[in-house]
Amino acid sequence: MKILLSLFILSVMIFAKTLQPVFTIDVNESVKDMVLGDGHLLVIGTDVGKLKVYDLNQKKFIQVIHLPKIKDFMGDIMDTRVSSVDYYKGKLLMLSDSGVGGYSDLRLNENNKTTDIFTEKDKLSLVESKFVDEENIFLAFLSDEIALYNLKSKKFIYRKQLSESKFSDFALNSKRDLAAIANESGEVVVVAPKSGKIVKRLSGINLDNIFKVDIKKDFVVTAGKDRRAGWYNLATGAKDYIQAHFFIYVAALSPDATLAAFAMDENNNITIIDLSTKSKLFVLKGQKSTLNAIIFKDNSTVFAASDDNFVNMWILK
């Protein structure tokens, strides 16, 4: 039986179904980050200082926010790069380069009004920012420090150093009560964002920098520079990985955490894996440059964005 099961899994891996996009959105600028809002909105940050909101039901952009231009170190005027975006109950969060000393600008848009949370004057080297709830924002610094900032009091609730390594990426689960934080050492730290309490430290899969991390249900997935597509089960302590032949830049989990998506080859294809069997179910083709974001809308709908103008959608069937 073990031999037959092994042969079945091998056959599935070999004959993974190849899919082409069923729908493509022309963003008209290079996409740097993307999140899903309210189940039908794609919130997109671009490299020319724009946050764009695309309504999947109406199939059109319904909001475009233009961020102020910045001066680079030579004094030249240029567009800022929107590196991190988020959406929560109609509120939009956008993190961008300030052009000064490696510091960041963080802005909030609510009711079509944009206000500054931090500017270069605050001298914060932020890498990512996400809403925990309507009043609190979870922040990650380049130095692998995390913080919770309260919008109402305009104060930090806490700031905490996680390691001596350089920060790579973080993701919040759907309830926004757990964060998985990855760094260049290959470790993932699971934290309760409201308190900053460390829940678990995960290691043993990635031996080098983790480019992307995701967390859904009891699972954490990692995309590694060491060419390892990894996953951890927080409930059981189990862990596993698939070895690829190229850097793995992006990883994402389906809402029920049964499927994982990894960008694991030099052709920018996305491989969909069944985590219970390690079988490769689908290979999603059509992305033309290095991937920056993969989103499962549900267990059968996947979106991806790259260093180009296009967001693609696939249906897994």
Write up what this structure looks like.
- This protein has 317 residues and is mainly beta.
- The protein has a single domain, classed as 7 Propeller (Methylamine Dehydrogenase, Chain H).
- The chain has one helix spanning 2-14, and strands spanning 17-19, 23-26, 31-37, 41-46, 50-55, 60-66, 70-71, 77-78, 82-88, 91-97, 104-110, 113-118, 126-131, 136-141, 145-150, 155-161, 167-172, 179-183, 188-192, 197-202, 210-216, 219-224, 228-233, 239-243, 251-253, 259-263, 270-274, 279-284, 291-298, 301-306, 310-315.
- Strands 1-28-27-26-25 form a five-stranded mixed β-sheet. Strands 2-31-30-29 form a four-stranded antiparallel β-sheet, with no helix packed on it. A four-stranded antiparallel β-sheet has the order 3-4-5-6, with no helix packed on it.
- The model is unreliable at 4-13 (pLDDT under 50).
